[in-house]
Write a structure and sequence with these properties.
about 160 residues; alpha/beta; Ribosomal Protein L13p, Chain: A; 7 helices; 5 strands; extended; Ribosomal_uL13; Large ribosomal subunit protein uL13m; Ribosomal_uL13_bac-type; mitochondrion
Length: about 160
């Protein structure tokens, strides 16, 4: 039987880490490797060892060269004459998060695991203050949290 420290070390290797990244002046497609877990030494295609990624400030991403006008995103509704083409600049004006989402979606492997990986991605168009951990709150603040139910004084649990 393996020791507890060895088991915990093994669990820590596969544990998902949360990355909080600033997207200001960054290329939009460089984050797919973090979602897949390619940077981990235990990476395998069939194992789920990717991390969670939160990208703030996607409104200010950067493309190199003339990609804002040359890169075209296309879609089709399935009806005749409904083939839509939009440049990256037009799409970014309409939805600042969509370019990052489409770039990362295109870089992920084309299999059923792709949807699970995309659920680990959070995009925020503007910078937001990161929330504090629960152990960083004072005792007064934790007592002021809203509660659904408070047990009575004589409540006893097994």
């Amino acid at each position: 039987m393996a020791s507890l420290s060895r088991v915990l070390q093994h669990w820590a290797t596969f544990a998902g880490v949360w990355y909080l990244l600033d997207g200001k002046m960054q290329p939009p497609g460089k984050l797919a490797a973090l979602l897949q877990g390619l940077h981990k030494p235990v990476y395998h295609q069939l194992s789920d060892c990717g991390d969670h990624v939160v990208i703030m400030n996607t409104r200010h991403i950067a493309f190199s060269g003339n990609k804002w006008e040359q890169k075209v995103y296309s879609s089709h509704t399935g009806y005749l004459g409904r083939f839509k083409q939009v440049t990256a600049a037009q799409l970014h004006r309409k939805d600042p998060v969509a370019i990052v989402k489409l770039a990362i979606y295109g870089m992920l492997p084309k299999n059923l695991h792709r949807r699970t990986l995309m659920q680990r991605l959070e995009e925020l168009p503007q910078p937001q203050k990161a929330p504090r951990r629960l152990d960083e709150y004072t005792q007064e603040e934790t007592e002021a949290f809203p509660r659904v139910w408070s047990p009575p004084e004589d409540y006893w649990m097994k």
